[in-house]
Design goal:
Order of helices and strands of chain A: HHHEHHEEHE
CATH topology of the largest domain in chain A: Alpha-Beta Plaits
CATH topology of the largest domain in chain B: Rossmann fold
Shape of chain A: elongated
Oligomer: heterodimer
Largest interface: A-B, 30 and 37 residues
Largest sheet of chain B: 9 strands, mixed
Strand order of the largest sheet of chain A: 1-4
Number of domains of chain A: 2
Strand content of chain A: 5-15%
Number of strands of chain A: 4
Bound molecules: iron/sulfur cluster
CATH class of the largest domain in chain B: Alpha Beta
Number of helices of chain A: 6
Structural class of chain B: alpha/beta
Shape of chain B: globular
Distance between the termini of chain A: 11 Å
CATH architecture of the largest domain in chain A: 2-Layer Sandwich
Largest sheet of chain A: 2 strands, antiparallel
Structural class of chain A: alpha+beta
Helix content of chain A: 25-40%
Chain lengths: 152, 428
Amino acid sequence: MANAMEIYQLLPKTNCKECGKSTCMAFAVSLLSRELTVDDCPPLKEDKFKSNYDKLSDMIAPAQGASESGMVVHEDKCFGCGNCVVACPVNVADDPHGAGIGRAPTSDKVILRVKDGIVRTSNVQECRRFGKDKILCNGCIVTCPTEAIEFV
Amino acid sequence: MKRQSMVILLNENYHVCTGCALLCDDIEVITDNKKITEVKTACRKGVSRMKGCNEPMSPTVDGQQVDIDVAIAEAANILKNAKSPLIFGLGNSTDGAQIKAIELAKQIGAVLDDTSSFCQGPTIEAIFNNRIRSCTLDDVRNRADVIVYWGADPSNSHPRHLSKFSYFPRGQERQRGWEEDRTMITIDIRKSHTAKISGDKSYQIPLRMDAEFIDALIDALSGKVPKVSFEFDTKRILELANILKKAKFGTIFVGLGLIYSLDDIEPVVRLMDKLNEVSNFHLIPMVGHYNMRGFNQNLFNKTGYLNRVKFEKGNNIDVQHGAEFSIIESLNNKTVDAALVIGNDPLSSLPLTVAKHLLDIPVITIDPCETFTSRKVKVTIPSALSGVECGGSAIRMDGEEVKFEPIIQVGSNRPSDEEILIRIMEAL
Ligand code: SF4
Ligand code: SF4
Ligand code: SF4
């Protein structure tokens, strides 16, 4: 699976911010976590970046469904109980008065939230299993009644 | 300061889910053209309620589609001509509709009952009569360190129970999270989804052995050696008693699995008495329908009884109460000659041997959605889906009142249960 640096190497590296992120590196991380897609970078669609665009699309595509932290949500098994949302230490730290106390998330930074009765992920780069200081967190695995979350 | 005002703003956008008696009050929705298109934070069960019926009901008389006024007039006619009508259901109706139903029952001298007479009634009655100590779900979130689910599988019946109130959230006196600050125990006849989460604190006992297990537990709590007639490691009973004894704030959530296995509520009262001698315990019934507890409370406020009553026609004082006025006995003994069913589907939820009397008498159903019952009855009156298409208030499983506004506006062809009952009373 690609890492953020490999992705970064293929980006325009101009930090133009057109994607809404402050740097191309941040955009690379968003691509990995599937928060944004390759098409969210306007310069990439220019002709001179055509081959990079194709390479990036290929790199991101095979990981579909699994994020860089390896997280896969089996949507068919999830019934939206929110146990993982409230148990995730990152959610608690970023949203102590929302997800942390069992209520609807009030922060954009949470990793897990429930929409239409199924858990959705965002900011997966913040997951404690991700990055260089990663630890083997299993907060969202052991709290799920149906084994809907898995890390591959 | 800024943050706080944002929270308040968000709260104003929150809606209440009426999918179960947890009445989650932090739901955000996105609507498009009078339809809910997206629901945030509700569980799957709640989402399916909020997104509405697959098959909405139409106003009908004898299977023929009619104007809603015609259906209401026919309903009034049936009730007027009945000698001993039954009013049943109301667990999925607002407090306002329940109070109107009680008035209607008085006006026509009806038998009035709800599903609590064959489920959580005895538990709620013991709480009303102060025989069992209860607490609120917010107390549980803020303070409970020992949580017991007995004969309950909230992961299926009340999906957000663990995440919103009991095991996982941080609370005022439970800041360190579930791993360190709380112990969750399940006692059940099977390894349910909830039992799976409780790990080695899951106690699996044989069918209908709950009373015996309770007495063994009371012995263990009293320092005696516990004994049970089935195969069970008594060391584990002692270990369980020890956890319960050390609780700073314990809560037992009682599910139908326990209620159905007992002949009466006395073993539970005994256990709670013992627990409060040696520890600090509370009990909350796992009420299913979103406002069943409201029905019990509202009827209790008016009559002193929480279910199974019969009013004397036109007599404002006399009300009889007893097992013979339960839906089951009324149908078994064929003592009722017409029925008004509100927000319930007795033909699919009751054993057919009991429910079949409903096929022989004129029945009126008021419901947002088509049900098995509604397809078989004489009159159907479609109502607004409460919590979505009409507002009101309801009583959460722990006795707390929750108010809610409608999320989408519907036309006059889908009045609320309360409006329908008022119109029936006027037509009488
Ligand atoms: S592994 Fe831990 S940090 Fe990552 S999403 Fe799950 S609970 Fe949160
Ligand atoms: S704990 Fe499991 S079932 Fe519950 S919301 Fe998370 S993934 Fe879904
Ligand atoms: S737990 Fe009950 S009240 Fe809460 S969202 Fe689910 S169905 Fe609705």
